[in-house]
Amino acid sequence: MKIDHRSLMLVTVIQNLQKLGYLFRIFTVGHGKARSIWESIDGDLSSLRTEKHAPIDWSTFEGVMVDSLEAKEAISSLMQEPFCSVPLIWIIQEDSLSSRLPVYEKMGLERLLSHWRSAFSRASVVVFPDFTYPMLYSQLDSGNFFVIPGSPVDVWAAESYSKTHSKDQLREINGFGKNDMIVLVVGSTIFYDDLSWDYAVAMHSIGPLLTKYARRNDAAESFEFVFLCGNSTDGYDDALQEVASRLGLPQGYIRRYGLNGDVNSVLLMADIILYGSAQEVQGFPPLLIRAMSFEIPVIAPDIPVLRKYIVDGVHGIYFSKHNPEALMNSFSLLLSNGGLSKFGQAIASSGRELARNVQALECITGYARLLENVLNFPSDVLLPGPVYQIQQGGWEWNLFQNEIELGIDLPKMDDDFSIREDTIIYTVEQELTSPNYSADNSENGTEVPVLDKLTKLDWDILREIEISEENDMLEKEEIEERMEKDVGVWDEIYRNARKSEKLKFEANERDEGELERTGQPVCIYEIYNGAGGWPFLHHGSLYRGLSLSRKAQRKSSDDVDAVGRLPLLNDTYFRNILCEMGGMFAIANRVDSVHMRPWIGFQSWRAAGRKEALLAEAEKVLEEKMRDNLRGDVIYFWGRLDMDGDVTRSNDALTFWSMCDILNGGNCRTIFQEAFREMYALPSHVEALPPMPEDGGYWSALHSWVMPTPSFLEFIMFSRMFVDSIDALHRDSSDATACFLGSSKLEKEHCYCRMLELLINVWAYHSGRKMVYINATTGFTQVQHPIEQRKGFMWAKYFDFSLLKKMDEDLAEAADDGDHPRDAWLWPMTGEVHWQGIYEREREERYRVKMDKKRKTKEKLFERMKYGYKQKSLGR
């Protein structure tokens, strides 16, 4: 939210991605002057700080881009199911954390290192703007680091600095003359403890140049050679002077400044920049960009990365590597009468224009290609345009130019190693370290929290204390056993017995949530899969959680364990392809043991995330209707299918089946009728796709509905057979790992889910159920697809309860006899297997147990009559 180079880069990238067809929703961290700029991109900005009060459903996005370390708050929720599979691109443009990593390692703060390593590993890709960053963050690398070169940081710094500083003033402060010809030698920006090999080789390469101009003592041409390298330690100066003396240069002729000082002032003082490094580098050297932005002519070796951008004789001058003569010739082109030649001034001017937008196009196209490779686009989206459609090759300077003129938010080359208290790094350090915070132990002026580490001696002392306490307890128990005890008065014995009974009752007492639901006509089960869904769940007597994963079940609640009720869901594959329908199967399996109310409802956690969950007013209306009509063949739904979206694949009006096709890879109708034909054993010439009306009414979605419990069991009976038919088509195909209903990775993982989400509509319409839409906010109800208008459209014979019951019993008989139609038959694993033969066998088993008990009783009586029964004497 700040006006700085990072905002400029991100705004430029996102605006160009929008032109390709990407849609963005922007979440902010705090407030800043860039708010108006972001509002022009997305008018409805949301604050990430309010997530605790209004949680974010990350699954509604194809991907998430996090643009800084400060936005790490979003990472925490993305590390929990069901958001772990959402692609995450984390852009790191600051090195503040990298300076802390060596401190953590030195102090043994492994918890902090592990925390950041875990956060970095969650990202699908961690993107850096420069190739030096992966080295700085190498301790956190899990194989997902990626560099997209290109950032306006150096241009921003140069333009802001030049507005507030004068070249002549800086020269006077640093002891240079106004007419001195200052030649600045630059190279790698990486710090070394000793003089780097790069600069040592550069010294020998430019040796003849230094020797030639050092011997000129005339006042008209006074040359000063300055090196910009390393840090401010004395080791660099001694090493440079040693090399200079070997070249025969006078003492003090060469001066050096460190990269951890005021780099901008050194660059601005220079007249000519000589890039002395001959190493092959991957990215455009940032010092050259900053120097060119100061409008200083550049001489550089002809290495590939520079030739890609700089035209020789236009934006700069090249010389052959390790060729002193070529360097001398190039250098002479820039000089005229003790100053810069007109040719040198022209190069400086054109170089400044080039540096202003250098690598901008590569940065924009790099992010576009990254999104193409990282994001998994579902079937119902229009794909964005190809990368080659990007035409813009510059940063959006027009949006930020006024702020640059004022010189605000100036980034510095020498980032301070201290951590402000308002940063996420400081917050994490405070949370993950002990309360013992020492201000005495510091490095580079940084306060480091000190942990009290337990030594081996501490563990030995603790063990001795535990053994001593255990021996004392045993000795005390032995003494108490040997002492004579008084039985006590009757009142005390009675009181202890009553206390024992009370504790036993409390252990078996019903859960508080179950007591609250006593007398309620309906219970709505909220289905969730993962701790990330907890903030979306409701509390109160109307709702009860339904967890699809035992690991993610809420501890302090009476949520239903779907896996415990249906072992099939313990298999990750089936849990993923069935989604919320698997939870419904679990409730229907021996339903009387968990639900004994006339009405039953379901609501996916996603409904709250998409602002389609029931609010208080709608809940009140729904409960009133349940009480007034305890038994009725009606289904109330509030999550509705979006039939009037902004984007459609054609100009034709959307219908139920066309929308289903869009949501299922274009194959909904085909797979539905094939599964329907498989389910009812219909011949190929018979129509198998139930007709759905085009009356403009609403259809149910998000598994958010309420219906009578008997109707629910009938729907589950139909759904189990239909799911089994889809699974049969899937397993009979040539590629059992493929998914007919989607192409993306996520759609393949949840293959049947989107079709099963709409199955309730087909069943309710053709089985003659009254369908009522209830507004989730106001509670307003409206009948959809009236029954009297369905005549001639309903396929009632296929949805008749007696037919479905007969089909269910036939499948149960086949499962009971072991006559499975295929391997891994799904139907018996989705619920109860029951038919008349099982009932008769169970009745016979009960009768056999009863008769066996009678026989044993008669045998005991016979023995007593034969041998008599002698009571043992009570005394002696």
TrEMBL record:
Protein's name in the database: Glycosyl transferase family 1 domain-containing protein
Database matches in Pfam families: Glycos_transf_1
Glycosyl transferase family domain boundaries: 237-339
Keyword terms of this UniProt record: Glycosyltransferase, Transferase
Alphabetical list of InterPro entries matching this protein: Glyco_trans_1
This protein's record includes keyword Transcription: no
Entry superkingdom: Eukaryota
